[in-house]
Structures are given as structure tokens and as C-alpha cells.
């Protein structure tokens, strides 16, 4: 917002995020229990993640590697030494009565992520990102959170590795938050450290406050004092991009209404109730000092700053998108579709290396992704069949079947019935008809339709189209209508 | 250390964090006990400082699965359980 547009009474929304993402590892962060969802409660548990007396945590190397990859991707500092702390609170989702997390020495500090909001580039500062363990899950039986008869506890999730990514209060609207979460997820998936499809893999807490516009600086930044002067609410229980946008739009309106009616905004924690589409006040929780953070003496410090050099990360989506536009001469839209996931981009490059990049783009971005999307499938669902899709593109590229048949008969048959492309082509007789066959069909069509031939010679324009139709019918649609038209004219003029 | 080193309010606050209800008499009793405990810790100040093993860092394990506890064993010490879950009072 520029200084000129600011008017007395205008309000600016300020949002900062704490994003919890589940890191994709085989085992939990401090013990060797699997992270895969279990069928039964308390199946993936051991003395460490149950907090049994005497059990000691041992850090999972893969979680640290994943954290370093995230740090590299957001261009963060990885300090010479980082360590773990105990965050103490008493709630049955924590079997130990404390959560192992990182307090003042996080593994990643001072990063940033460039995002795209409605076509415009924005940089969001990331203050820190740290490793921690997930708590277990609670079921409140016989009522809501306040009215339940009793609580059931499942510790399968307890100890699953999380990364908490904390942004600066850089967002000015709920839609920016949504764009950030989408771009963040995309980067994390490219890194191979995150699976957006996994239940509960993304959880967001958001701080929102409303500031008088005249307290913002000319460049849209806001001084810390102005921010500290405004009461903020922390909105918890957000679990999707869309949920974040909705929850924060609700909270933005709620706070603005309060301010415009001259009421104060309470500084409090609020719970996003997805089903009702509202935020509700939660009983106030502990203050930070009540968590009594202290060093986790059972885990020695980490010195992994040099891992930043050793661990490679793949080309990230924004860079890859730009390269695709230049290297394959693709439109921004096509490049964007083709880089939507790393798997799609890898497959596209695979196809484009063998065939015309333009044809490859059509077949991967439009045909394949379109048909998959229609079936509510992802490229990962056909991971082991990409060779067959490659073969299909080859059949089109070498002119063995028409694009129409490739799309309507072959690709759909592959996805619906699981058949291989060559099987379908053979079974349905889709191989492009040879010239002799077309020529024979042309002669037949002329012999069988003397009236149309007479009309043609009488100069009636529609007659030729009728004859083309007849030939197409005889060749089962596999002839090229343009060629047929020419062959017919040549034959009729003889 | 004097007897009022820990005041009743501090005891009530700590009790609230631990979700424990205390009678007034208990608050006074714990205030005395907390003070005693803090005093024991002061004794540690007289222990000579020992360098800890500064080179111990980066202790990690490979990301390999090991056997978990049987569900039955996991729940063995629980006062109450139901359908494989630990069962406890309502919390909010």
C-alpha cells in the first residue's frame, strides 16, 4: 500500500504463521517406530515414544537431513551448533509431560521464501524453522472438547518428526497466506521431505492483528512497536490452504467489526471450527514462561552446518518453471502445469528428450494430467506406467495413430482398463489406414453414390463432404479427412 | 533460606500447570517443601564444576524400523484402556 492511498480509519491486516509440516521419514524422530499410519491405536509405540521411565531418545539422521534440505531451500542459516529443549506442559497427548523441541537454537534461522500471489512475486521472511516431535492424538468421547465423558489416547503419532516453520508477520491478506502455503508445500514436495496427501501432514497456527493504516510505513512495512500495540489472536486448528484462507478471512472480519464498533480485540487463542466456519475462543493457555523450557540433556548438540554443502537438493519449482519456458519454449501456463510436482516435471523432461517438446507438453500437461484429474488421480498413481504413456506419445509422434484416437481410445483405455497402448491399438484396429486402403475406399464411395457424384459435377459444394464422410466411415475414422478430400477430388476429376 | 522463599501463589501456579487441585493446608505444606527442595539445589553450587564431554555431538541413528511393543504390552501399565486406547478423564 502506498502512503497516498492511506486514509484515516483505514485498517491493515497483519498475519504471521507457524506452519507444522510432517517430515517424510520411515521412523519417528527419537525412536525406531514406523511413521506409517497404523490400522489399530497404539500399534506403532515403544518405551521411548510412550515416555516409559528410563527410555532414552536417539535422533533420527533422516529427520536432520530433511531439516537441512528445508534450510537450503529457504536459504536459511544453519548455525554451527543447534540443540533440543524440553517444552513442559501437562496434557495427555504428551506421554512424557514435555515435548522435545528446539527453543532458542533452532536448526534453521533467517530464511525466506519467494511466493507468487496473483501473478506477483513476493518474498516472505522465515524467522526460523525447527525440529520437534508430534504429540499423540486424543478422542473426546461422548461430547465435544468441553463436554466429553472421557478421553481416549492413541500414541501412534507421538514422536513423528515435524518441522515448525515460523514466518515474519509479512502477510497482509488471507489470500496471501493461502498462496504461501501452496508454494511452501510445492517446495517441500520437490525436496522429497513432505507428502501433502498424508492425513495431518500440514497444520497451521496463525497470528492475526489489525493495525491502523497510518501506522504502516510508506513501503508497506510495519514497525515492531505498532505491531506490539495491537492485540492479536492466535488461530489454531487449521489444516489446509483453503481452511487457512477461510479461517483468517473470518478472523479478519471479526476483528475489524469489533474495532469499528469501538470494542477492544482480546489477545487470545482461538480455535478454527471448520464445520461451522467460525473461530471460537479457547480457554487461555499457558504463557511462554510456563512452558519452562530447558535443555534436553539426553540429546547431545547437533553440529551440522557443513551438511548444507554435502546434501544436494533438486532444482526448485520456480527455477524449473523459468528454465522450462526458456529451454522448451513453453508458455508460462504450460511451464507452470508441467512443474506442479517434481514427478510431472521429471516425466515431462523424459518425454521431451525423445520427442518434440511441444508435443510432449501437450501430451503431459493437457492429455495426461487432464485425464488423471478427471479421474481424481495423481501422476504418482501411474508412476509405474509412465513407460506406457511414453510409448503412447511415440505412437502419435511417429504418426502411427491419430491424436484423437490416442486420446479417446488409447489413453482412456489405459487408465480405465489398465491395458497397454499397443494392445489397445491392435484390438481396436486404430493403426492409421494405409494409402491403398484409403484409395480403395475412395473408389468404392464413388461407385456406390452416383447421385452425389452427379451433384459434385453439377457444382454442389455439399456433395464432396458427403463423400468424405462415406470414406471416413469405411476406414473406421482412421484416415485423414484432408487427404481423403484431395484423393476424392483427384478421382472425380479424372 | 527463609521460610517464605516460596510463596503460596507460586505453589498454586505450579499446581495449576500440573492440573492439581490443592487445599489451603496443602499449599502451605508444599510451599515449605518447595523451599526445602530449592535449598538442596543450592548445595549443588558448592560442587566443583566438571567439564562435560564437549566433543559429544551428532549422536544419531539410521532411519531404520525396529519392532514396536505389542499393543497389549503398551497398555499393560495403564490404569484404564478401551479398544486399544489409553483411557483417561475428560480434558479440555
Give Rg of chain B in angstroms.
Answer: 22 Å
**Spans where pLDDT lies below 50 across 5 or more residues of chain A:** 1-6
Kindly report the average pLDDT value of chain B. Answer: 88
* Low-confidence regions of chain B: none
Given the structure, what is the number of helices of chain A?
Answer: 16
**Series of secondary-structure elements of chain B, N-terminal to C-terminal:** HHEHEE
* Cα shape of chain B: flat
CATH architect. name of the domain at 2-46 in chain B: Orthogonal Bundle
What percent of the residues of chain B sit in helical stretches (DSSP H or I)?
25-40%
How many structural units, i.e. domains of chain A? 3
Please provide a written account of the structure.
The complex is a heterodimer of chains A (494) and B (92). Chain A has 494 residues and is of the alpha+beta class. Chain A folds into three domains: 300 residues, no CATH class; 112 residues, no CATH class; 59 residues, Arc Repressor Mutant, subunit A. Chain A is 39% helix and 19% strand. Chain A contains 16 helices and 14 strands. Chain A has an eight-stranded mixed β-sheet. In chain A, β7 and β8 form a beta hairpin. Chain B has three helices and three strands; from the N terminus they run ααβαββ. Chain B has a two-stranded antiparallel ribbon with strand order 2-3. The longest helix of chain B has 21 residues. Classes of the chains: A alpha+beta (494), B alpha+beta (92). The interface between A and B is large, with 53 and 31 residues. β8 of chain A pairs antiparallel with β3 of chain B.
Amino acid at each position: 500500500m502506498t502512503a497516498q492511498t492511506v486514509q484515516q480509519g483505514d485498517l491493515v491486516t497483519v498475519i504471521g504463521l507457524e506452519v507444522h509440516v510432517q517430515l517424510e521419514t520411515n521412523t519417528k524422530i527419537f525412536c525406531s517406530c514406523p511413521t506409517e499410519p497404523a490400522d489399530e491405536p497404539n500399534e506403532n509405540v515403544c518405551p521411548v515414544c510412550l515416555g516409559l521411565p528410563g527410555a532414552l531418545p536417539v535422533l533420527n539422521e533422516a529427520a536432520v537431513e530433511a531439516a537441512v534440505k528445508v534450510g537450503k531451500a529457504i536459504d536459511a542459516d544453519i548455525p554451527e551448533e543447534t540443540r533440543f529443549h524440553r517444552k513442559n506442559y501437562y496434557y495427555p497427548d504428551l506421554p512424557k509431560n514435555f515435548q522435545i523441541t528446539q527453543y532458542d537454537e533452532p536448526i534453521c534461522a533467517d530464511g525466506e521464501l519467494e511466493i507468487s500471489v496473483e501473478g506477483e512475486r513476493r518474498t516472505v521472511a522465515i524467522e526460523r524453522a525447527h525440529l520437534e516431535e508430534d504429540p499423540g492424538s486424543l478422542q473426546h468421547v461422548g461430547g465435544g472438547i468441553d463436554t466429553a465423558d472421557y478421553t481416549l489416547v492413541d500414541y501412534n503419532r507421538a514422536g513423528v518428526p515435524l518441522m515448525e516453520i515460523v514466518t515474519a508477520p509479512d502477510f497482509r491478506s488471507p489470500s496471501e497466506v493461502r498462496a504461501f502455503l501452496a508454494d511452501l508445500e510445492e517446495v517441500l514436495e520437490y525436496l522429497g521431505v513432505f507428502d501433502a496427501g498424508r492425513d495431518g501432514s500440514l497444520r497451521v497456527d496463525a497470528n492475526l492483528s489489525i493495525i491502523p493504516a497510518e501506522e504502516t510505513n510508506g513501503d508497506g512495512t510495519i514497525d515492531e512497536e505498532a505491531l506490539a500495540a495491537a492485540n492479536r489472536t492466535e488461530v489454531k486448528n487449521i489444516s489446509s490452504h483453503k481452511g487457512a484462507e477461510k479461517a483468517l478471512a473470518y478472523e479478519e472480519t471479526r476483528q475489524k467489526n469489533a474495532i469499528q464498533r469501538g470494542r477492544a480485540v482480546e489477545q487470545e487463542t482461538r480455535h478454527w471450527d471448520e464445520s461451522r466456519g467460525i473461530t471460537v475462543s479457547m480457554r487461555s493457555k499457558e504463557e511462554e514462561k510456563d512452558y519452562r523450557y530447558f535443555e534436553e540433556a539426553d540429546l547431545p548438540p547437533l553440529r551440522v552446518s557443513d551438511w548444507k554443502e554435502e546434501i544436494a537438493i533438486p532444482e526448485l519449482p520456480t527455477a524449473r518453471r523459468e528454465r522450462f519456458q526458456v529451454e522448451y519454449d513453453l508458455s508460462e501456463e504450460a511451464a507452470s502445469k508441467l512443474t506442479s510436482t517434481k514427478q510431472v516435471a521429471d516425466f515431462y523432461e523424459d518425454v521431451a528428450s525423445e520427442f518434440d517438446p511441444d508435443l510432449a507438453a501437450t501430451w503431459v500437461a493437457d492429455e495426461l494430467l487432464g485425464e488423471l484429474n478427471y479421474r481424481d488421480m495423481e501422476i504418482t498413481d501411474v508412476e509405474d506406467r509412465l513407460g506406457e504413456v511414453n510409448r503412447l506419445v511415440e505412437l502419435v509422434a511417429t504418426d502411427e495413430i491419430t491424436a484423437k484416437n490416442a486420446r479417446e481410445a488409447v489413453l482412456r483405455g489405459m487408465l480405465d482398463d489398465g491395458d497397454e497402448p499397443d494392445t489397445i491399438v491392435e484390438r481396436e484396429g486404430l493403426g492409421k489406414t494405409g494409402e491403398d486402403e484409403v484409395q480403395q475406399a475412395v473408389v468404392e464411395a464413388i461407385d456406390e453414390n452416383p447421385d452425389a457424384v452427379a451433384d459434385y459435377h453439377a457444382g454442389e459444394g455439399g456433395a464432396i463432404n458427403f463423400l468424405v464422410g462415406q470414406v471416413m466411415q469405411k476406414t473406421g475414422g482412421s484416415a485423414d479427412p484432408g487427404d481423403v478430400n484431395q484423393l476424392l477430388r483427384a478421382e472425380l476429376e479424372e | 533460606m527463609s521460610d517464605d522463599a516460596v510463596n503460596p501463589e507460586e505453589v498454586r501456579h505450579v499446581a495449576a500447570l500440573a492440573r492439581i487441585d490443592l487445599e489451603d493446608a496443602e499449599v502451605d505444606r508444599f510451599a515449605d517443601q518447595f523451599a526445602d527442595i530449592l535449598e538442596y539445589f543450592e548445595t549443588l553450587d558448592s560442587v566443583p564444576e566438571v567439564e562435560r564431554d564437549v566433543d559429544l555431538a551428532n549422536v544419531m541413528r539410521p532411519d531404520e524400523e525396529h519392532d514396536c511393543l505389542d499393543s497389549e504390552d503398551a497398555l499393560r501399565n495403564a490404569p484404564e484402556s478401551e479398544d486399544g486406547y489409553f483411557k483417561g478423564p475428560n480434558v479440555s
